[in-house]
Known about the structure:
Layout: H1 6-12, E1 17-22, H2 28-36, E2 41-44, H3 53-65, E3 70-72, H4 79-89, E4 93-96, H5 102-112, H6 137-145, E5 148-153, H7 156-160, H8 162-171, E6 176-179, H9 181-187, H10 200-212, E7 216-221, H11 227-232, E8 237-242, H12 243-262
Parallel strand pairs: 1-2, 1-8, 2-3, 3-4, 4-5, 5-6, 6-7, 7-8
Helix pairs in contact: 2-3, 3-4, 5-8
Amino acid sequence: xxxxxxxxxxxxxxxxxxxxxxxxxxxxxxxxxxxxxxxxxxxxxxxxxxxxxxxxxxxxxxxxxxxxxxxxxxxxxxxxxxxxxxxxxxxxxxxxxxxxxxxxxxxxxxxxxxxxxxxxxxxxxxxxxxxxxxxxxxxxxxxxxxxxxxxxxxxxxxxxxxxxxxxxxxxxxxxxxxxxxxxxxxxxxxxxxxxxxxxxxxxxxxxxxxxxxxxxxxxxxxxxxxxxxxxxxxxxxxxxxxxxxxxxxxxxxxxxxxxxxxxxx
Length: 265
């Protein structure tokens, strides 16, 4: 059975959306996220993880059990293979990294959009999990066309070409931009910039320009308290928390608390 893309539905209805990241390659994680019924999707940050295609199938099945659509963030070097494999497994969204030029947006579009007249897509009939129940190419086309298309704005050269990139992104119906302060600072030659107030004008311009072009900006958060500033800038789509960091934070809190309590025993 093809899972309904409720993430796409939320965007079409103009509702705010909330996701959370996971890096652990354990299918229990997306099922756990889905069971909370608090998130519109889970983002598997494959760019930072170790995985294979069968694991993507297991993740998608587990997420489907929890009613959770999944997004994948592939590394640019293997993005076509990984993105198409993830969609075949049942993922519902792709976040493309390292966008530098308008041509990178075109390439990303070709990877996930159907090879049909007038679309410019290169994705043919690759019935993987959808073919388990039937060989219905009409349903496959509808599901593929509903894939949520997101791009990272995280490179210094991309910021310099922001209008050109967003012009193409709008024409190709990109759904979301995601600001990436770490890669932006790194590619600008000043890695520490991301931790200073000097990063904010760049961030604000990406948000402002995205809204002007009719593309929803999404922001990644480490805490709820960080959200208000972005809401005031017009942002309504967020992805909060990373499983690895959440676990570390809780371990530190539990360990430090117990060490303090048992001192001198």
